[in-house]
Amino acid sequence: MLIRIPSKHAPKPSEITPPEVYRGRRRFLRGMGLAAMGALGGSALLQPAPAHGASLDYMPGPFGTDETLTPREDVTGYNNFYELGTGKADPARNAHRLITEPWTVTVDGLCLNPGRYRLDDFLRPHALEERIYRLRCVEGWSMVIPWVGFELNRIIAQAEPLGSARYVAFTTLMDPENLPGQRLRVLEWPYREGLRMDEAMHPLTILAVGLYGESLPNQNGAPLRLVVPWKYGFKSIKSIVHIRFAEEEPPTSWNMATPREYGFYSNVNPDVDHPRWSQRTERRIGELRRRRTLMFNGYEEEVAALYAGMDLRKHF
Amino acid sequence: MFVVCLLPLAVLFARAFAGLGGGLGANPIEFVMRDLGSWTLRFLLITLAVSPLRHLTGWSAVMRLRRMLGLFTFFYACLHLGVWIGMDLFFDWTLVWDDILNRPYITAGFTAWLLLVPLALTSSDTMMRRLRRRWAHLHRLVYPAAILGVLHFWWLTRADYREPLLYAVILGVLLGWRVVMRWVWKGRVLLQLRGSAE
C-alpha cells in the first residue's frame, strides 16, 4: 500500500480547483477579453501585442510559493541561452532563429520502451500543471516563474528504464545553420545536461512547455525544457530533442567547459562558492537589495534527503 | 571634448530616467556596473593611445588631452566601484572586503583602481613640477593598472571571451609599441628591424 505523506507545500485536495471549473473560468475570461477587444475594435489604443504563445490548459500544481512573480517581460527578456547569443537580451532578439516545427523527441538508451515521437504525441498523454518555482542562476540573480508542464517521472515511467539506468541525459537541438550561438565555440555543442535517476524522478523536476499560462517563448527553451528548481539554472536544459538513460554519469556542457567551476550536481548552495564569486547572496530580478541565497534554493525540505551522506563541497 | 567624455554617463541617465534605448533592462544595477566598467577600460585604452598617436602622426596638440582622458578614466573607475559598493552590495562592508580579498577578479579590479588613485592625485601642474623626474616614474603605474583592468574583465567572463580578448589585444598593441620604441631609442635595434616592426 502506498502511503502518501503530503509535504507542507502541497495544496490540500480541497484547495485544488477541479479542472472543468478551472478551464471554464479560463474560457470565460478569454470570452471577456474578446468582448473587450470588440468594444475597442479599430481603436487607436490597440497596440500591437508582444508575441505571445498559445494559451495552455492546465491545473494548479503543488510546491507553490506566495513570492511575487517576476514580470513576464523580464522572464522572457533576460535570458541565458547561448545558442541564441551570449548577451542577456540576445535570446529574445534572436528568438525567431530557433525553428520549433517540426519537433521530434527521441527517448532511448537503457529502457524497455525507446521511441521517437512527434512533439504532439510526446506531450498528449500528460495533463499540464502550473508550477511556480524560484530559479537561481549561477551568476547570482534569481526569478520566480510560473511554469506550465508535467513531472519528468511520467516520461520515465512510460519509457521503463532498466535497473542499470542510473542517470538521465538530455540534449538540446543542434542546428548551427539557424542558431547563431552554435557557430561560436563558447561551449561544445550541442548543449548537454544530466540528472541522477532519483533527481529525475523527484516530483519537483518537471518538463515545462509553457510559462505564464502560454506555450514557451523560444528564448525560454521552446518547445520543451527541463526545470530543476533546486539546481543552478544552467542545469535546466532548454529545447530538448533527446532523452537518454545511461549507466554512467553523462557529460554535461558547463562541466566539460570548466570542470573546476561547474560540477555535475550544481545544487544551489550558499556555502559552496563558485571559484570566482560568492554564492551567498543573489539579486531577485526586480528587487534593489540582494537577498540571502537559500540552501537548495529553498527546496531543502523536499530534496536534502537525495544527498544524505554526500560531501557537497566535493560533489558541487 | 570634455562634454564628449561625459556622453557615456549621459546615455546611462537617459536610459535610466527616460527609458531610452530599452532602459536598463531586467537587472539595472548589473547593467550600470558593466557599462561603467567597460567605459573605464575604454578610457584607459584611449589614454594609453595618446602617446603612440602623437608619435605616429606628429600631432602634438593631442598630448594636451591626455590628462583629461586619464582623469575621466579615474572618474568612471570611481563610479564603477561606487555602484558596486553602494548599489550592488548596499554598503555591506563584510561582503565588500570578503570579495576584495577572496575573489581574484575583484582583487585585480580593486588593485587597478588603487593604482590609479596616486596618478589622479598627482595630475596637477603643481604636482608635476614638484615631483619632476619622479612624476614620470610614478605614472608608469598606469601600465600595471591597465593590465589588471583587462585581467579583471577576463576573469569575470563566463565563456564568451571575444570582448575581453579585444581589450587584451588593443592593450597588447599599445604596450608592445612602447617596448619596441624603447629598444629603438636605446639604439639596440638596427634600422631594418624598425622597418619590419611597423
Can you walk through the features of this model?
The longest helix of chain A is centred in the first third of the chain and has 22 residues, at 19-40. Chain A has helices spanning 19-40, 72-75, 90-93, 119-123, 152-159, 197-201, 253-257, 300-303, and strands at residues 59-60, 104-109, 115-118, 129-136, 141-151, 167-172, 192-196, 206-211, 214-215, 225-227, 240-246, 281-284, 291-292. Chain A is an alpha+beta fold and 316 residues long. In chain A, 18% of the residues lie in helices and 21% in strands. In chain A, the strands form 2 sheets. In chain A, strands 1, 4, 5, 8, 9, 10, 12 and 13 form an 8-stranded mixed sheet that branches. A 5-stranded mixed sheet of chain A has the order 3-2-11-6-7. Chain A contains 8 helices and 13 strands. The model of chain A is unreliable at 22-50 (pLDDT under 50). Chain A has a single domain, classed as Oxidoreductase, molybdopterin-binding domain (Sulfite Oxidase, Chain A, domain 2), CATH 3.90.420. Chain B is mainly alpha-helical and 198 residues long. Chain B has helices at residues 2-18, 28-57, 63-88, 93-102, 104-121, 125-131, 133-138, 142-156, 162-185, 191-197. The longest helix of chain B is centred in the N-terminal third of the chain and has 30 residues, at 28-57. Chain B has one domain (2-165). The model of chain B has no long low-confidence stretch (mean pLDDT 92). Chain B is 81% helix and 0% strand. Chains A and B meet through loops of A and helix 4 of B.
Give a nutshell description of this structure.
With 316 residues, chain A is an alpha+beta fold. In chain A, 18% of the residues lie in helices and 21% in strands.
Label the structural class of chain B: mainly alpha
Largest interface: A-B, 25 and 23 residues
Order of helices and strands of chain A: HEHHEEHEEHEEHEEEEHEEH
Radius of gyration of chain A: 20 Å
Radius of gyration over C-alpha positions of chain B, nearest whole angstrom: 19 Å
Helix content of chain B: over 70%
CATH architecture of chain A: Alpha-Beta Complex
What is the domain tally of chain A? 1
Number of strands of chain A: 13
- Give the CATH H-level superfamily of chain A: Oxidoreductase, molybdopterin-binding domain
Arithmetic mean pLDDT of chain B: 92
Q: What percent of residues of chain A are in strands?
A: 15-25%
How many helical elements of chain A? 8
